[in-house]
Amino acid sequence: MNWRAIFAIVRKDLKIVLQNKGVLIPIIAVSLIIFGALPWVSVLAPSMVNMGGTSLEQLNALIAQMPAGLQNQLAPYTAEQQTVIFFLVYLLAPMFLIVPLMVATVIAADSFAGERERHTLETLLYSPTTDRELFIAKLLSSWLAAVFIAFIGFLLYIVMANAAAWSVIGKIFFPNWMWMVLVLWVSPAAAGLGLGTMVLISGRARGFQDAYQTGGVVVIPILLLMFGQLTGAMYFSIGVVILIGIVLWAIDIVLIWYGGRVFRRGRLIARS
Amino acid sequence: MKSAAITVKNLTRRFGDKIAVNDLSIEVETGEVFGFLGHNGAGKTTTVRMLNGVLEANSGSIHVLGMDPITDGPALRARTGVLTETAALELRLTARDNLLIYADLFSVPRDKVQTRVRELLEFFGLGESADQRVETFSTGMRQRLSLARTLLHNPEVIFLDEPTSGLDPVAAHQVNALISNLAEEKGRTVFLCTHNLVEAQKLCDRVAVMEHGRLVAIGTPTDLIQQYVRRLDVEIETAPGQMDAALQALAPASSLTFGLPRHTNGNLTLTVTGREAIPELLNLLVQNHIRIYRMSPHQPTLEDVYFALHDEKETVQ
User: Fold this and answer.
1) Edge-to-edge strands of the sheet including B257-264?
2) According to CATH, what is the number of the domain B230-299?
3) What is the pLDDT of residues A168-197, one digit of tens each?
4) Would an 8 Å CB–CB cutoff place A19 in contact with chain B?
5) So what's the pLDDT on residue B10?
6) Using the beta-carbon criterion (under 8 Å), do B88 and A122 form an inter-chain contact?
7) Where are the domains of chain A?
8) What is residue A230's predicted lDDT score, i.e. its pLDDT?
9) Greatest mean pLDDT range, A46-55, A261-270, B66-75
10) Residues of A in contact with B77 (CB under 8 A)
11) If phi over 0 gives left and psi between -120 and 50 gives alpha, with beta otherwise, what is residue B154?
12) In this complex, do B101 and A123 lie within 8 Å of one another by their Cβ atoms?
């Protein structure tokens, strides 16, 4: 395996992303909203529901309908604290997965479809790399960036969540073990899902925008997880999070295996 | 005898119903500048792609530097350099970054990367723009940078698709001199795809002419001219007032000419059947006491070969 060539392509793709405002701005904006702003909004939630005419008790009634496991987790806290923890720890957990998913999708769209659009793909195909090395390089650039941003985002979220909730909880309560599993096990898989989807889409996409817009559907499973928690159908326990990770990794493997099979110079050049 | 750098036998590539390359057989010697001529869609780019293992052939065999491009693709591409028709650079990166990344891709020894990149940037007149983003470059600068990238790893076989496209005459001259030097001094093999027939005639040891995927002619420019150009323009300058007399004198020689004589720049221009016709025409003029100041045959070029081949094909059709 020619790792020097692989990392040259990774370096190239990442440098190009850093120069592309169309790619950078959505990544930065979404990350700042989710990791920076949402914790503060969540802490304001109890007072907001009061303003909307809904009492805190009604929100707690919703929590009371949640699975027993979640109620046990929240039991040691007051009603107000429970609301804040429900938002910051459980409800926002699926939102966290949007970031690696989105970053991987945007960068992969630029790396696969964008490269073809810029007519730079052909030159790359004339390099002394194998099809597999090219494919790995293209996967790595998006995946590494997505996981890196997710990890940095997680650190920011730790700070923001504890800071925002300090007035209500009065101690450092975050992260818990569920979040550690979520970040270390599920977020790389979520990045893989965005990447795998984009590998499939970009072959047929007309360019970066086309690939990116079509790839947006990948966020649907994450939204379903959020609604699942909101309706009380499930909650993010360690077991559930491990299971979500297993499912995502399995989908990743299938998508990337298939993507690898169709990632052939001859096919790529015919479409370029 | 020199060894063959490229050997192609009965190469065919189809895209659906369309045959892009049809039963092509050529051999290119090491150190040769080989012109690959043809209009758009003649099969030039498809051939280059197959020669580098980027595209598989439907049938036939290819050996470049003794390697099969499909089974030995990466090893082969490490020893070839390809300049594609569009400059295909990363516009958001600087000129230096474009070269540094490709130096790693082509495994240029790490301790030589910086020197090699600097040398090439200087050679192509891009030293002062090295750290500017390529999107600010003119077409000519991009083409020069693209050439620099092609030569970064000292390839043994160099495929150039319209290398002087977009260059000003001075830069084009410099690039042509470089191509000659690469072949003559450094023994590199150059496979030159071009529409520029004047350039091809100047640079190429041999040329192949492609039409609709088929090889229609191959040889040295001189051989092809002799073989295919059967018409020759001859300009005749007579003494003042003798032009009509000259036309009358030449009337019996209609079997040696095509069409009617033309008046150009106050002289007479005839299209004749070949060099052999010239003494006959001169003899007729002298016998009729026409005073001839000048009789100059137009030197045929590859362009004439190209059009002769085209006319031949039209006639057959």
Assistant:
1) B257-264, B267-272, B232-238, B292-297
2) 3.30.70.120
3) 888 998 898 999 999 999 999 999 998 888
4) yes
5) 95
6) yes
7) 3-271
8) 77
9) B66-75
10) 126-129
11) left
12) no
Residues of A124-148 as b/e, b for ≥16 C-beta within 10 angstroms? bbbbbbebebbbbbbbbbbbbbbbe
Angle between helices A93-108 and A21-31 (to 10 degrees): 170
Q: Cβ separation of B74 and A12 shorter than 8 Å?
A: no
A65 touches chain B (CB under 8 A): no
Q: What ipTM does this complex have?
A: 0.84
Within 249-268 of A, beta carbons closer than 8 Å to B belong to: 265-266
pLDDT tens across A197-221, in order? 888 887 677 777 777 777 778 888 8
Pairing status of strand B4-15 against strand B59-64: antiparallel
| Extents of the domains making up chain B | 4-226, 230-299
Q: How confident is the model at residue A55 (pLDDT cuts 50, 70, 90)?
A: low
Per-residue pLDDT tens digits for B116-149: 999 999 998 899 999 999 999 988 889 899 999 9
Which tokens hold the place of A38? 């949402």
A221 to chain B, closest Cα gap in Å = 35
pTM of the model: 0.83
Architecture (CATH level 2) of domain B4-226:
3-Layer(aba) Sandwich (3.40)
Mean pLDDT of the A112-127 span: 86
Interface check for B205 against chain A (CB to CB < 8 A): the answer is no
How many separate helices (H) and strands (E) can be counted in chain B? 11, 13
Residue range B47-78, pLDDT digits in tens: 999 999 999 999 999 999 999 999 999 999 99
Q: Which residues in chain A touch residue B86, judged by CB atoms under 8 angstroms apart?
A: 119
Residues of B in contact with A133 (CB under 8 A): 74
Residue B310's contacts (CB-CB under 8 Å, 6 or more residues apart) are B211
Contact B105, A8 (CB under 8 A): yes
Mark yes or no for CB contact A123/B84 under 8 Å: yes
Residue carrying the six token digits 């910086």: B114
Q: Which one of A9, A120, A126 has the shortest CB-CB distance to B77?
A: A126
A210–chain B nearest CA distance, Å: 20
Distance in angstroms (rounded) separating the CA atoms of residues B132 and B98: 11
The confidence score (pLDDT) of residue A52 equals 47
Structure tokens at B187: 């023994």
